[in-house]
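RECORD TYPE: inverse folding
INPUT: structure tokens
STRUCTURE:
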């Protein structure tokens, strides 16, 4: 899938599985959320809810559970799919990172230091 390549290019850890519930146990200290949809080409993932945005933004490690059927072929279709599920949306495609004037990259300044996507696929 193209989304795996896009996410990995952004430094995201991607785990592909048929059963996310087994893997969730490995992320005890992470904030786990369920994605509403995602754009296959860019790796942008949509989530819903104001409270969810606060928790995900403050987490050190954000783990997103994304179902294969919620991956759409472009950003507009992904957005529309997510809007059918929630009125409040936010998007993410990588861990939070910024760079200072000298070009030194810092992770976790404005959000999670680490971002993992668990892509749940069908057999």
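DESIGNED SEQUENCE:
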């Amino acid at each position: 899938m193209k989304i795996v390549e896009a996410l990995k290019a952004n430094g995201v850890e991607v785990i592909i599985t048929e059963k996310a519930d087994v893997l969730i146990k490995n992320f005890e200290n992470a904030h786990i959320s369920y994605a509403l949809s995602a754009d296959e080409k860019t790796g942008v993932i949509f989530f819903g809810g104001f409270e969810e945005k606060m928790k995900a933004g403050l987490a050190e490690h954000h783990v997103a559970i994304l179902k294969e059927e919620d991956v759409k072929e472009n950003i507009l279709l992904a957005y529309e799919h997510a809007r059918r599920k929630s009125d409040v949306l936010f998007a993410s495609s990588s861990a939070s990172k910024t760079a200072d004037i000298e070009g030194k990259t810092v992770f976790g300044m404005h959000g999670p230091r680490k971002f993992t996507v668990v892509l749940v696929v069908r057999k």
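NOTES: The chain has a mean pLDDT of 88.
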